[in-house]
Amino acid sequence: MPAIVYLHGFRSAPRSAKAQVLAARMAEYGLSDRFWCEQLPVGASATIELVERALSRYTDPTLVGSSLGGYYATWLAERHGLRAVLVNPAVIAPLSLAQYLGPQTNLYTGEVFEFKPEHIAELEALEVAQLSDPCRYWLLAETGDEVLDYRAAVAKYAGARQTVLPGGDHSFTRWPDYLDAVIRFAGMPAG
């Protein structure tokens, strides 16, 4: 059964705007039972364990990952031969997130957590040097991303379907315009 497993970014949550509007659109189409999005743990190892349990519930899941979720989605897509949609993904997460070592606050839940050097090491272990089948990926990026350099993602996902839009920001401001296309990419009827 086709489904979407949504992976939010660092300091984010299932209450993020992207997760919420995608969940609502899938509900409109009667596909709520084919959408999974839960709070991801701070550590990469615990995150992978949680998401792999979720993936096992479906026969044909597609990963949708935003920012750090895109980094996780890439590793999981490679490991399991899955499709993945990457939204302004963190392609060099260990380097990008090193500046956030120490106490952090989840932007949606207010929970305070400690981001530690061992979390960086766990991310380094998930580095994907090269995509085995770029055709399984779709990059959605905006050039105005103030957090991550979109050009790194364009290079990382060379050969993949790419939608690179001018302007915007790290939140991917045009997300609502792509909901139906993402649902269709995941093998489900939309619109």
Give the low-pLDDT segments: none
Which homologous superfamily in CATH is the superfamily? Alpha/Beta hydrolase fold, catalytic domain
CATH class: Alpha Beta
Strand numbers in spatial order across the main sheet: 2-1-3-4-7-8
Number of strands: 8
Proportion of beta-strand residues: 15-25%
> Outline, from the CA principal axes?
globular
CATH topology: Rossmann fold
Distance between the termini: 19 Å
Which structural class is indicated by helix and strand composition? alpha/beta
Total count of domains: 1
N-to-C SSE string, H for helix and E for strand: EHEHEHEHEEHEHEH
Rg from Cα: 15 Å
Estimate percent helicity: 25-40%
Q: Which CATH architecture is right?
A: 3-Layer(aba) Sandwich
The tally of helices reads 7
Can you give keywords for this protein?
single chain, 191 residues, alpha/beta, Rossmann fold, 6-stranded parallel beta sheet, two-stranded antiparallel sheet, 7 helices, 36% helix
Topology at a glance:
Blueprint: E1 2-7, H1 17-28, E2 35-36, H2 44-55, E3 60-66, H3 68-80, E4 83-87, H4 93-97, E5 102-105, E6 112-115, H5 117-124, E7 137-142, H6 150-156, E8 161-165, H7 175-185
Parallel strand pairs: 1-2, 1-3, 3-4, 4-7, 7-8
Antiparallel strand pairs: 5-6
Helix pairs in contact: 1-7
Question: Any overview of this molecule?
Answer:
The chain has helices at residues 17-28, 44-55, 68-80, 93-97, 117-124, 150-156, 175-185; strands at 2-7, 35-36, 60-66, 83-87, 102-105, 112-115, 137-142, 161-165. With 191 residues, it is of the alpha/beta class. It has a single domain (2-185), classed as Rossmann fold, CATH 3.40.50.1820. Helix 1 crosses helix 7. It is globular. The model has no long low-confidence stretch (mean pLDDT 96).
